[in-house]
TrEMBL record:
Superkingdom, taxonomy of origin: Bacteria
Protein name per the record: Antitoxin
Ranges annotated as biased composition (Basic and acidic residues): 26-45, 52-61
InterPro entries, per the entry: Antitoxin_Rv0909/MT0933 (IPR028037)
Region (Disordered): 1-61
Species this chain originates from: Streptomyces dubilierae
């Protein structure tokens, strides 16, 4: 694995962590009222950033 692959992997991980954190905070503030819409939005963002992965599959490093 080259150095640029490491940076790419780290950026994806941080982006994914950020979107997961934002989703959790929004769900907490709204009491989960908009959970489906927030999850859909997170998936769209992760898809655009290329960080979307199967959540049942362990992350590759």
């Amino acid at each position: 694995m080259g150095i640029f692959d490491k940076f790419k992997s780290q950026a994806r991980n941080r982006g994914k962590q950020g979107s997961d954190s934002a989703e959790q905070q929004i769900d907490e503030r709204t009491g989960g009222k908009y959970e489906d819409q927030v999850d859909s939005g997170r998936q769209r963002v992760e898809g655009s950033l290329g960080t979307e992965q199967d959540r049942n599959r362990p992350e590759q490093q």
